Structures are given as structure tokens and as C-alpha cells.
Amino acid sequence: MHCERAITRDLFWVGGNDRRLALFESVYPIPQGVSYNAYLLLDEKAVLLDTVDHAVSRVFFENLAHLLGDRPLDAVIVNHMEPDHAATLQQLVEKYPDVTVICNAKTAAMIRQFFTFETDGRLLTVKEGDTFGAGRHVLRFVMAPMVHWPEVMVTYDATDKILFSADAFGTFGALGGNMFADEAPFDMAEARRYYTNIVGKYGTQVQALLKKAAGLAIEMICPLHGPVWRKNIGLFVEKYQRWSTYTPEDQGVVIIYTSVYGNTENAAEILAGKLAGRGVSDVRLYDASVTHASYLVAEAFRCSHLVLATTTYNAGIFVNMENLLHDLCAHNLQNRTVALIENGSWAPTAGGLMKDLLAGLKNMTLLEPTVTLKSALKEDQLARLDALADQLADSLPRPTVVHDGSPVEQNALFKLSYGLFVLSAKAGDKDNGCIINTVTQVTDSPKRISIAVNKQNLTHDMVKQTGVFNVSVLSADVPFRVFQDYGFRSGRNCDKLADQPDVARSANGVVYLTRYANAFLSAKVIQTVEYETHTVFFAEITEAKVLSGEASVTYADYFDHIKPKPAATAEKKKGFVCKICGYVYEGDTLPPDFICPLCKHGAEDFEPLA
Ligand code: FEO
Predict the structure, then answer these.
(1) Which residue's alpha carbon is at the smallest distance from atom 1 of ligand 1?
(2) Could you state, in order of their start, the residue ranges of all structural domains in the chain?
(3) Which atom of ligand 1 is nearest to the CA of 148?
């Protein structure tokens, strides 16, 4: 019996769920199953986006037949040829003999490799930027090679702003009753395990796709596995930014060991206790002989520090640790701090061999020396584990303070400079944000900051009303568009946040920028001081998080590199230009009380036109 689901009024999920498969790709355990998503667009033309794995072919064809009724299937778009999505293509062509197969040239070659159906006159071959008109919907094709096979492309519905993202933004786990990520519990750990193990190796290619996607207005993402995203897309994109740049999500230590008779495990356990004693809160231990490598690869991508502890075995590395190291190398892990513990009863060699394998990875910091055990940890070696615990703790950021359950990362405050910031607030259902340039740390304990905000800004009034705000620290890669969006228009006559894909909400319910910001601070106002044009708010930090390693943008960067230079005009005008946003006031004299209508800066920030 069919079980298709509506996504929009003319887009339907026609895939299937497999909760019986033990190993996805014959490698990865999927205790929560997996979904194979296919989508049917019913416009003037009926267009199918991808097919499914053999395992769910019956329900897929039932879904399709039910929705099509007497209509023909006009086209199928093959975004990805891997058989978990394309295995039923031959059957589809046989059932719907008039269907056109839309694909790129690489896909066409693979179709001929996998299948026997006649492709002459059947295929419509597309390339980057080509479009297909389905009626009301215009579908544009964007190539995404190696995310996760070389032929992969994604399809963008420019009409409804939907990205059919192939494997990208997918996850393990069969779908429950709800089709949307915002309507059901979403397990980010499984999404991380899916990403890191399936496409983790191809960070550069994922970055290329993210750059292309940044140029598209996206309101919904329909991946080939897992739920559809229509809210908080920025949250998932931020994870993809981190994973694809091999940037740790969390500052902590993952200790992975193998142990034949428990002695190496004992050293790992003692080290974990010593780290906890030094205030390292995120310490996790795994036995690589028990936990599947896919979970350990995901943990290695999540966390900043790794300790690998293993036995010497057949004069080499114990087999399960060796396999894990090969897996980490295959997935291109980078930018981690690693410490090693080796054990060996007569000739410990595992440490040196692990080092050799790790040497192939980029930007790895190895903490020396390797701790060597001979059979079992001895009392006089505890000092060596203490020294290793010190090294690890010293290389981690200062422990995070917790304020009412929300983390306050000290490093987030280190991002403050004479820079530029998005100040955001929420009053009732209204979100708003504006650009400010004065955020200063006032005290360290308790952590307090001050901000100065122009009284003409709506955000000023919202902060005054609610006493709660966020500051997103803008990073050096911020484009001028962000200043236009938040600084050069007023929230009084537009919804500035309505079309912002790169935002998320912090614990206080206020939005912050997930992109072009290297940290955000949440704060609660404790005192205000009024000046003529500005209110200075003193506030206590309630949450603080580092978002990226990008440098903070400075005021000088803004003027030197970001703000467009005024275009030369044939006819020289008389007037004054706002140094902040470039607004031009035409006239011989500038009134001393003039306020820039765009950025709200006063006459002191204007200079005569050159
Ligand atoms: Fe879900 Fe690369 O296949």
C-alpha cells in the first residue's frame, strides 16, 4: 500500500524506509534504519527526482503509481547514480517507457555501465546551470562532483527555492511520522556519523558545493536520506562548514584504546580521571574493539583532541587500532592534537608505527613523548600520565563556565576587538538586528560587557524593552551584503531576518549569525547609561560560543576592503559622503544635526565629496 507524503502542494516524497538493513554500504551499522528519499513534482510535467534502493522498490512504485494516477511520468532526474538511489532506474524505465532521463554526461556513462536499457533518445544530458521547465517550476542543475561520487549533481527548484541536495545534508535513520527535521527529534550525532563516514574525505568538494549554494536563496533542503529541512537550515549549514573544513566542533578529549588483557585500558581510564581532575569536562573513552569505527571517525571529527592507546601485536599495531587509523587517514582527518600511549611486553613498537600513519594527515599536533607501558602501568609511571594530562589540559581552552545551564566560553570573549558586530534582539514575535561597533569586555568575573547603541535603531528599543540581546562578532570574511542587510535598512519597515539563511537561536531565544561570525555572546542588561544619541548597556554574559577560527573583522578592514569604493562619476557632485555606509548628501553645507538615513550615523561621520 502506498505511503507517500506531501511536502508542498505539488511536491511529494515517494521514497521508502529500511529498518531491517544491518550495514549501510555493507560497512556502517544503522540501528535506526535508513530512508531512501525520492521526490515527485506534479507540475504541468510530472518529474521524479531520483529513485530508490532495491530494498524499498515495492513501496516506491506503489507511491509513484498512486500519485500519478492516469498521468504519464514525463521525466526522472538522476542526481546521484549510487545504487541506493538509482538501483530501480531500469525498472522505472520499463514501467514508464516514455520517461526522459535527465542527467549529466558522467551519469550517462554510469547508466550504461549499470543498466542495459537503450539510452539513445532517452537521455536529456545537462550541464552546470542548465534549466528544465516543468511548468510553474524551473529546475536548475548544479554540479557537485565527489559529494559523494564524481557524477553527483544537485537540483535547485528556483520557483519554490528548494534544493534537492543528493547525499549532502542527509543522515542515517529511517523517517518517523514526520517528514520535516523541525517536527521530529533530530539526532545530530547520526548526521555527523553519516557525513564524516560517507563524504568526510571530500571536504574541498563539499566546500565548493557550499559556495555554490550560498549564491542560491534556499528555503528548503530535500536530501536523499533523512528528513527535509525547512527551518534552522543555518544550523545544519554551519555543521557542514565545520566538518568540511575539519574544524573541531568541541574542545575536549576522545580517548580511544584497544586492550587485550585490560592493562592499556587501565592506563586510559586513569588518564581520563586525571583530565577530569584538571577541569576538562568533555572526556570520552571508547574501546575500538567494541565500538564500530564509524562512530569513532565521527567522534574524531567532533572533538579537538585525541588520545590513541594500544598494544603492540605481531610486532605491529593491534589490529582494531590499526584499522581505525587507516580509517581516519582515509577520511582525511586534519587539525587535531593527538597523544599516544603504547604497550608491549617485550618490544613495544606500536607508538612509532602509529606516528608513521598519522604523519600522512595535515595539521596534526603530536604531543611528545609517547607514553610507553611494559605490560602494565607501574606506580612510578603515574607521573608520566600526570605530565600527559597537563599537556592535554594546557592545550585546551580554559574551562567553560556554565551560566544557568548555558556554556560561556572564555575564548568567545577573546574575539572582541575594535570591530563590527551584529546586535540582535527579540520582542514578542519580532526579530531584529543592527550593526554596532562598540562592544567591550568590562569585567572577567562575572563576565560583563558594555555595548553602545544608537537610539534611532529599532534594536535599541527592543533591547531596552526586553533587557536581552545577542552580539555576533563579525569575521574578516564578512561581505558587504551583511552590512546592507543589517545596517542600511530599518526593522521598522522590513523584516530583516525573514530572508537570512545563516542564523540560529541561542538559549535566550534570540538569533545570532552562524556564518560570517566567529563567536556570539548572549547577554542580560544590568544597567543602562543614557547619552544624547546613544544608550550604553552594561550586561552580564549568559552564553558565549566560538563559531569559527576566522579572525574578527576590524573597523579598518571594513573601510579598506569591504565597503565598495564610490564609483567615479563624469559629473562631479557637490555634497558630503557618509564614511560609514557611503550615503551621499547633496548640497553645499551639511546641517550639523544631520543623521544618515541609512546607517544612522551623525554629521561627524560625513566628509566632503572628493
Ligand atoms: Fe546515498 Fe552516495 O549514496
Answers:
(1) 167
(2) 5-244, 250-395, 411-556, 564-608
(3) 2
